[in-house]
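Entry details:
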Amino acid sequence: MSASDKSDAFEFEKVDVADARQVLEDSVKPAALRGRPAANWDAKRNAGAAESMRTGTIQWILKLPAHVQPRFLQVKYPRVANRMAALWDDKEACERYFEDLLTDKRGGRKGFPLNVAQEIATLRDFHFRLHHKDRVAWDHVEWS
């Protein structure tokens, strides 16, 4: 092999499969999470008994228009429905809760099943329209 052939050759570094996988996983993390130490969410999770629907939550759901009433959310995530019902009349707190539910701030979370996510988005839009009569929920989004 001549000297000119060597200048065009790639140099490879042998790496462990786990190291390569970690590099790939780090490359798909949101920019805000790169380089941040991993948080221990296990300590923050409440692993208590499963929560059931509260009477107030059922009443809240029945007061909603039929096309907005969550069906899957109340069955699969009653704790979330209870929290929504409790926050519904507090405009800012409820909007923050919707944002927290629909935004992955931890990175790598599964999220809700599609049918539940759609119900949450519908509830968010309905709540927004109740409190912002002349606007729609997407008015605050910056478009590039």
Observations:
- The mean pLDDT is 80.
- DSSP finds seven helices and no strands in the chain.
